[in-house]
Amino acid sequence: MSRVDLSKFNNTWYMPGSALKRILWYVVSACVFRSYMLPFSGLKRHILNIFGAKIAKGVVIKPGVNIKYPWYLEIGENTWIGEGAWIDNLDHVRIGANCCISQGVMLLCGNHNYAKRSFDLMIKPIVLEEGVWLGAQSRVAPGVVCGSHAVLSYGSIAYQNLEAYTIYAGHPAQKVKKRQIEE
C-alpha cells in the first residue's frame, strides 16, 4: 500500500503575489488586523484597498481578523467581519453586501489531495451572496457558494453550497428550515 511522502510536496505552481508584497502584507496584517490595538474599520478598509482588495463603504472589521491575501478579497457594503475571523483566501473570496461573518468564522479556500502521495494543494474560491449570516465558529469549505440570505448556524461546517433563504446547522451542515425576514 502506498504512503504519503510530504518530501514530494511541490507548491511552486502557486504564486499568490511577489515575495515582497506578501512580506509587507504579513507585517501590516500583524500590526493592524490581527492586533486588538487598532479597532478602526475605516483605516482597515483603506489599507485593504491599497493592497488590492475591493472593500465597499460601511464594512466593519473587528480586531483579531486574519486575511491571507487581500488582493483576492471583495466585500460588499455594510458587511460585518467579527473578532477572530479567518479569511484564508488562497483563492478569491467574494462577500456580498449586508453579510455578517461572526466571531471565529473560518473561510478556507485551500485543502490537500489526500489521495496523492505528494499531498498536493487544491484551491477553490468561496462566494457569500448578499445577506448571508455565518454564525460564530462556523466553517466554509473551498468552492462553496452561500446563496442570498442563507444562514450557517453556530459551529456548523458547510462542505456544499447553501441554498438562498435557508438555515443550515450541523457537521456537515444540513437544511433546518427556510429563513423568513420580517419588515
Structure characterization notes:
32% of the residues are buried. The protein has two helices and 19 strands. A seven-stranded mixed beta sheet has the order 2-5-8-13-16-18-19. It has a five-stranded parallel beta sheet with strand order 1-4-7-12-15, with helices on one face. The chain has a single domain, classed as Hexapeptide repeat proteins (UDP N-Acetylglucosamine Acyltransferase, domain 1, 3 Solenoid). The mean pLDDT is 96. It has 183 residues and is α/β, with parallel strands linked by helices. It has helices at residues 19-33, 41-50, and strands spanning 54-55, 60-61, 66-67, 73-75, 80-81, 86-88, 93-95, 100-101, 106-108, 110-112, 121-123, 126-128, 133-134, 139-140, 145-146, 151-152, 157-158, 166-169, 174-178.
Question: Which helices and strands appear, and what pairs or packs with what?
Answer:
Layout: H1 19-33, H2 41-50, E1 54-55, E2 60-61, E3 66-67, E4 73-75, E5 80-81, E6 86-88, E7 93-95, E8 100-101, E9 106-108, E10 110-112, E11 121-123, E12 126-128, E13 133-134, E14 139-140, E15 145-146, E16 151-152, E17 157-158, E18 166-169, E19 174-178
Parallel strand pairs: 1-4, 2-5, 3-6, 4-7, 5-8, 6-9, 7-12, 8-13, 9-14, 12-15, 13-16, 14-17, 16-18
Antiparallel strand pairs: 10-11, 18-19
